[in-house]
TrEMBL record:
Species in which this protein is naturally found: Triticum aestivum (Wheat)
UniProt-recorded name of the protein: Protein kinase domain-containing protein
CDD domains: EGF_CA (cd00054)
Classification via Gene3D superfamilies: Laminin, Phosphorylase Kinase, domain 1, Transferase(Phosphotransferase) domain 1
SUPFAM superfamilies for this protein: Growth factor receptor domain, Protein kinase-like (PK-like)
Binding site for ATP: 618
Swiss-Prot/TrEMBL keywords: ATP-binding, Disulfide bond, EGF-like domain, Glycoprotein, Kinase, Membrane, Nucleotide-binding, Serine/threonine-protein kinase, Signal, Transferase, Transmembrane, Transmembrane helix
Disordered, as annotated region: 873-895
Bilayer topology annotation: Single-pass type I membrane protein
Subcellular location: Membrane
GO cellular component: membrane
Highest taxon listed in the record's lineage: Eukaryota
């Protein structure tokens, strides 16, 4: 079974469910099966005789082949032999849905990889064709995620929406030029002869297609072509979710111990949130196996400390592959440590999934350096192998150092079973492996102090001879011992010679001669030193100047100068600063000038010679390929002039890492204000509406009003800054893209922040203005719920804010899920309006979302309505008596009082009291200004 990166929509929805834990119920004994209605609960003895594989595809109970081997008819599988190829194929009980790609792992996977194919025969003179529908084969199957290919000549492809009982267009095929084969058409599926589209549906009820002939296409090709004679529908990949559906939820299921599906003593139950009916079982933390059978969940027993094969290959090019890792079968301790050496010349060492390339393995620190494919971007790394525990942990990037453990056991548990204990060297010790979030992963081994080598081999840890260290560790004679060393003093009238590392006799010298020689030597050394210092200073200045010129050229300084000189608007306000100017402005980048830190660098506050206060963005490192991204940000900001977009003063290219110089925004980001530690946010509802209007106006300007359209691509609350007047400023254009007027979208590598990322952009790679709309919708939810985009629920599980919000709207009124402060300050109509606007922004299909202009107008209307209620004169901003004056009581939540209307066009008094970066900086007296 091959390694997979399990990032899948339906699985994520399942993991957001509410967990409940119960011990498993009783099971039939004496070799008989328990039956109730259509349910069959077989005994362990019966299950031992049931098939577990069909060809190369494996499966676990509750799925099975044959009477008594499956839980209910939905889980009845059929294994057939393909008459043309002689291979075995596994089908669900409908006989048409094939199970592919490894099989069904009931231990933790909640999805099945399936394949589907169908076609309609094309005849001359007929323009409309309908394809027979396909539905999930039983109530136990919920949710669908996949990608569909349609091959044919000249058709608009429509799909039936079961919820609205209406059809909508999904793609079109054309057939220009010469004939091609069906396989070639599918390989390049780009709208010519073949088109494709994704389907993600949590409450999936099946699909049905119809095809409508395009005008003029029927005379373009030879009618004997296979692509003319039929229209084919095939799955590129497809995943079908499943659960146990004989009870509505865990509570109902646990009430009937005889039919309760979670049979193992160490298993738990979780409700399905997809269809509102059914549940799943899973093994508790630290346990592996099948929770649907008795004793199915057990502790980790997968580590084998003794390699089955000798003379294993331990090198892949320049990369060493030490045990417990290995390349050949029998040379690794468990499946999760198997690696593939695909190219010894270029040192290509990979895990079974091509997304992961191993660059280095560090046994002493328990780290593995992994490089990722450029096309794969995600926020955290999880590497899985079927039937293996989660033993890797790390964070995504172009390169990542991931921790690893040898088994999902504590040191005490591992030492109880010496036959599987990994620390086999006598001079080794056991260490617990925890993640940065204090999540337990297991244990690893390390050579004891004074030893080095491989603790996973019997004679792997060898003594370190500390006395052979090039740097002397003793002021006397060093004597090495096993695991340590001793320092021995020299005898009387003997002195230790650090050069020979031996004791030598002390020689008496003439004191007067020594003084003369010392004075002469000292004078000569002093003269040479002064001369050397002067020469070194001149040489350093020369080297520094050459280095700055080198950095300037490497950082595309000539290109940026040309861009600035050719752009009349940019040259008036964009400047290329020298490094001396910025060092003087920041006291040589003093640490007390730091006002912001991030994963990629930090921001300094500086004061230029003309007394302008600026923020200087300095990255930690920058790859050669990121220089263009840096120039991209400068090019974008130099062409933008908007009151709600951060102003760029210029940049510096004379350092190894280029620097950006912005207008200083003193009050931090909207994210830091919304999610501060204080119980009550200093943002009032009036502030939220104003900031949302300002940010939406800036994004609308970028999309349609600027001289050239800009897609921001990383809209989030931490990129909406608040200036001294708490006016919103949209910032961070490093990921943005310029788009010409005649383009509706661009195809690019997926970038963004998890929690804000547009699902359609993630799956298609097509960036358009609606991707920013989706991200802005998440910001609106943050303003309503005051929760982070990825937050921890009361049960301790990680939840996606947008999924939490959308599912919450379906179950209860929006007033029950918004933050208490919002509920107290806003009217129900305002809350409903913002929630409805956010829901439109979060629609899965970009074409169903509003434009940023529509979002801005809707928010401005909402702001205007509040001004009308407050009776504010928009000409001078002076507040009059509120229209609704009675005090707000328990039954008057929609009424406004005078305190709700205080300067609705301006920041409220409580936000002006927020702690800011400016106050923190001014409190440091030691920094010159």
């Amino acid at each position: 079974m091959r390694m997979k990166f399990r990032f899948f929509f339906l699985l994520m929805v399942a993991l957001l469910g509410t967990q409940t834990t119960r011990a498993s119920g009783a099971l039939a004994t004496n070799g008989r099966a328990y039956e109730e209605g259509n349910l069959v609960i077989p005994s362990p003895a019966m299950l031992r005789g049931c098939p577990k594989t069909c060809g190369k595809v494996s499966f676990d109970y509750p799925f099975g082949i044959g009477s008594g081997c499956f839980r209910d008819p939905d889980f009845n599988l059929t294994c057939v032999v393909d008459g043309s190829t002689g291979t075995h194929k596994l089908f669900l009980h409908d006989g048409i849905t094939e199970v592919v790609d490894g099989g069904i792992d009931a231990g933790w996977s909640r999805t099945i990889s399936i394949a589907y194919a169908n076609n309609a025969v094309v005849t001359a003179g007929k323009d409309v064709y309908n394809l027979s529908s396909w539905s999930p084969p039983g109530r136990s199957f919920v949710g669908f995620s996949g990608k569909i290919n349609v091959t044919g000549c000249g058709f608009d492809v429509f799909m039936l929406d079961h919820d609205s009982n209406s059809t909508f267009k999904v793609c079109s095929t054309t057939c220009p030029g010469s004939e091609i084969t069906e396989a070639t058409a599918r390989q390049n599926c780009n709208g010519t002869w073949c088109c494709s589209f994704p389907i993600i549906n949590g409450n999936f009820r099946g699909f049905q297609f119809s095809f409508v002939r395009l005008r003029g296409q029927d005379i373009r090709v030879n009618r004997t072509s296979p692509l003319w004679n039929k229209v084919s529908v095939t799955t590129v990949y497809a995943n079908l979710g499943w659960n146990v559906a004989d009870q509505a939820n865990c509570a109902d299921a646990e009430g009937d111990a005889a039919t309760y599906a979670c049979r193992s003593n160490n298993s738990s139950c979780v409700d399905s949130l997809v269809t509102r009916r059914g549940y799943w079982c899973y093994c508790n933390g630290g346990f592996l196996g099948n929770p649907y059978v008795p004793q199915g969940c057990s502790r980790d027993k997968g580590y084998n400390p003794i390699p089955r094969m000798v003379n294993c290959t331990r090198q892949c090019g320049d990369i060493e592959v030490p045990f417990p890792f290995g390349i050949e079968e029998g040379c690794f301790a468990r499946k999760v440590f198997q690696l593939n050496c695909t190219n010894t010349v270029s040192s290509m060492l990979q895990m079974e999934d091509d997304e992961y390339q191993v660059a280095h393995i560090n046994l002493d620190k328990g780290l593995i350096e992994i490089k990722y494919a450029e096309s794969y971007q995600q926020e955290s790394v999880r590497i899985y192998i079927d039937e293996e525990p989660d033993l890797y942990m790390g964070f995504i990037g172009q390169t990542s150092l991931a921790q690893w453990a040898v088994a999902n056991l504590t040191c005490e548990e591992a030492q109880m079973d010496k036959t599987r204990y990994a620390c086999v060297s006598d001079n080794s010790e056991c260490l617990v492996v925890n993640s940065t979030m204090n999540r337990f992963y297991g244990y690893r081994c390390k050579c004891s102090t004074g030893f080095q080598g491989n603790p996973y081999l019997r004679e792997g840890c060898q003594d370190i001879d500390e006395c052979n260290n090039t740097r002397s560790i003793c002021e006397e004679v060093c004597h090495n011992t096993v695991g340590s060393y001793n320092c021995i003093k020299c005898p009387d009238k003997m002195d230790y010679d650090a050069t020979t590392k031996q004791c030598t006799s002390i020689k008496k010298q003439h004191i007067f001669l020594g003084i003369i020689i010392g004075l002469c030597s000292g004078s000569g050394v002093l003269l040479l030193s002064l001369t050397g210092v002067l020469m070194v200073r001149r040489w350093k200045r020369y080297i520094q100047m050459q280095l700055r010129r080198k950095y300037f050229r490497k950082n595309q300084g000539l290109l940026l100068e040309q861009l600035i000189s050719s752009d009349e608007n940019a040259s008036d306000k964009t400047k290329i600063f020298s490094v001396e100017e910025l060092e003087k402005a920041t006291d040589n980048f003093h640490q007390m000038r730091i006002v912001g830190r991030g994963g990629h660098g930090m921001v300094y506050k500086g004061i230029l010679s003309d007394q302008r206060v600026v923020a200087i963005k300095k990255s930690k490192v920058i790859e050669a390929g990121e220089i263009n991204q840096f120039i991209n940000e400068v090019a974008i900001l130099s062409q933008i002039n908007h009151r709600n977009i951060v102003k760029l003063f210029g940049c510096c290219l004379e350092t190894e890492v280029p620097l950006l110089v912005y207008d200083f925004i003193p009050n931090g980001s909207l994210f830091s204000v919304l999610h501060s530690d204080s119980s009550t946010s200093c943002l009032s509802w009036v502030d939220c509406i104003r900031i949302a209007v300002e940010a939406a106006g800036a994004l609308s300007y970028l999309h349609s009003a600027a001289s050239i359209s800009v897609f921001h691509r990383d809209v989030k609350s931490s990129n909406i800054l608040l200036d001294g007047n708490y006016t919103a400023k949209v910032a961070d254009f490093g990921a943005s893209r310029l788009v010409s007027i005649d383009q509706t979208h661009i195809v690019t590598n997926v970038q963004g922040t998890f929690g804000y990322l547009d699902p359609e952009y993630y799956y298609t790679g097509q960036l358009n203005e609606k991707s920013d709309v989706y991200s802005f919708g998440v910001v609106l939810i943050e303003l309503l719920l005051r929760k982070e985009p990825i937050f921890t629920s009361e049960s301790g599980s990680k939840q996606n804010l947008s999924n939490y919000f959308l599912s919450g709207l379906k179950m209860r009124p929006v007033t029950e899920i918004v933050h208490a402060q919002v509920l107290d300050e806003a009217t129900e109509e305002e809350i409903s309006s913002v929630a409805s606007l956010a829901e439109m922004c979060l629609r899965l299909r970009g074409e169903d979302r509003p434009t940023m202009k529509h979002v801005e107008m809707a928010l401005r209307i909402l702001q205007t309505e509040r001004l009308k209620l407050c009776n504010v004169d928009p000409k001078n901003g002076q507040e009059r008596e509120p229209v609704l004056t009675p005090p707000r009581g328990e039954d008057s939540s929609d009424e406004l009082v005078a305190s709700d209307c205080a300067n609705a066009n301006f920041p409220s008094e409580n936000i002006k009291q927020c702690y800011s970066f400016e106050q923190e900086f001014m409190s440091y007296d030691g920094v010159s200004r």
